[in-house]
Amino acid sequence: MNWEIEFNEIISDILVNENFIDLKYVIHHGISRLDHSLHVARITYLLCKKLHMKNLKEVTRAALLHDFFDNKEKFAFYKHADWALENAMKEFQLNSMQQNIIASHMFPICHTLPNCKESFIVSTVDKMVALYELTKYKVPIEIGAIFIFVINFLAIQR
Ligand SMILES: [Fe+2]
Ligand SMILES: [Fe+2]
């Protein structure tokens, strides 16, 4: 099966959820939070497929839901993983791995630690995608890289 068809099948019910669709009105890294979430889900899907992971579907869906919050609070670094998990659990069935993926995706800037390789994958993909988006739509790459480095450095000093 063509990967794009499979990818779309995995996430189709999420993309028709009214509350999730509202993420298209929230700006995130210079684009909509819906587009950012789709970027993270797509790269996660391709990576998991390359690694022949059996839980490709569950990881991809959790990756799509990782920033499911419409709060426009500017510096929501520490809290938004919890908000996203709360919102995702209201709308969809999530297993414990998916819950950990969402709750820990901001590692090391969040309360929950990643407890499986799937969580490390999504957390890493999110940072790579965020850096790409920040530097494509908002700031020069040096500033984007320094920004992500400083935020993570400060977090591990806590
Ligand atoms: Fe996030
Ligand atoms: Fe994100």
Provide a compact summary of the structure.
This protein is mostly helical and 158 residues long.
What's the arrangement of secondary structure elements?
Layout: H1 3-11, H2 18-21, E1 27-28, E2 31-32, H3 33-50, H4 56-65, H5 80-91, H6 96-103, H7 117-138, H8 141-157
Antiparallel strand pairs: 1-2
Helix pairs in contact: 3-4, 3-7, 4-6, 6-7, 7-8
The protein binds fe (ii) ion (FE2) (2 copies).
Task: Please characterize this protein's 3D structure.
It is a single chain. Helix 3 (33-50) runs antiparallel to helix 4. The chain is built from 8 helices and 2 strands, in the order ααββαααααα. The model has no long low-confidence stretch (mean pLDDT 90). It is an all-alpha fold and 158 residues long. A hairpin with a 2-residue loop joins strand 1 (27-28) and strand 2 (31-32). One fe (ii) ion binds at residues 36, 40, 66-67, 126, 130. One fe (ii) ion binds at residues 66-67, 80, 105-106.
